[in-house]
Amino acid sequence: MAQVKDDHKKNSFYLLEQGKPNDTSEDVENQPEEKGSDGHSLGVKHPTTYLESLFHLIKGNIGSGVFAMGDAFKNAGLLLAPVLTIFLGFVCIYGNHVLINCSKELGRRRKMRQYPTFPDTMEWSFQTGPKCFQRFSHTIRFLVSLFNIMAQLGFCSVYFVFISSTLHTVLPLQSEMKNPDKFGSRFGVLNVGMTIVGCALLWVGFVGYLKYGEDVAGSLTLNLPKNSLFSEVVQLTIAIGLLFSYALQFHVAVTFVWPDYNRKYGPFKHPVLAECGIRLGMALITFVAAEVVPKLGLFISLLGSVSSTALALVFPPLCDLALHWDTS
To answer: Quick one: which of 52, 55, 47, 4 has its CA closest to 177?
Structure first.
């Protein structure tokens, strides 16, 4: 997941409120142009560089869940697990490229100055598709938002019990870049970043299972010696990493909840306080879930298998099919 800077004085998440489904191409064209400090017309006050976006992508996809790769290799086998990991990595990256291309095409057709968000991309694609797709355009938007919120809040809940997972958020990262075209290019942020992430997962999983064999635990940290200074340092380092990763993962869920909430019940007299209240309530939900749900790890695995699979493997090809169904 991606770190995006909030601009509370402009009622936050200005970018997500541009190009709403009810906006026509003429409406978008007539909107006053908002430029960053370098003339970047994306409504972003501080566009990120290539390296900044790369680090955001890597951090958003490598959490403490990487230590569970040893257990994954134990279940799949030392020879088959690397092959499956690489294959699924290619499929997920390809799905992200499909999503980016669809977002670019919709932005071109609607003459927008910024890329549409994930829900906008899915809804508008379905609206341009055949009738069997058009009738579900609002439903697909709701499902995209729901699955993103489920996945991200679920992962945040697990952070309270020291387990993590990842989810891609490519469109927000791309929209925040000074040069968005460098995100999805051959040696762009997406390909380079996910290659680094994949190598890290492969390395930890392979070495972890090679070291501990069938005794490898659900997290490699559980295999470390007890009452060891080294183990305590590792645990402390991971805890600090989770402290920052929580906000990164939590931000994705907020970007789906707050703009719609603000459009429905706003404008607020004190928008910053209202948004902080939403954030506080959502954070309490993740904390309560971590405390009261028994066997939370299994529950989050269920959420991830449903929501993350749909977001990464199902929705991108449906989006592309609906958008290009009438072309050769």
So the answer is: 47
Residues 160-182: pLDDT tens digits? 444 335 354 576 677 778 888 88
Distances (CA, A) of 198 to 48, 71, 186, 250, 276: 23, 16, 17, 23, 35
Residue 6 tokens read as 């909030």
* Segments in the chain below pLDDT 50: 1-42, 160-164, 166, 168
The DSSP-derived string for 113-173 is: SSPPPHHHHHHHHHHHS-HHHHTTHHHHHHHHHHHHHHHHHHHHHHHTTT-------HHHH
Cα angle, residue 218 at apex, residues 93 and 242 outer, rounded to 5°: 65
Tokens 């679920």 found at: 154
Phi/psi class of residue 165: alpha, beta or left (left: φ > 0; alpha: ψ in -120 to 50)? beta
Q: Which residue type sits at 62?
A: I
A 10 A CB-CB count for 288 gives 12
* pTM score, whole prediction: 0.70
**What are phi and psi for residue 45, nearest 5 degrees?**
-70, -40
Q: Are 291 and 158 in contact (CB under 8 A)?
A: no
> The tokens of 214 are what?
């069938």
In order of 19, 111, 162, 310, the CA distances from 23 in angstroms are 6, 11, 43, 27
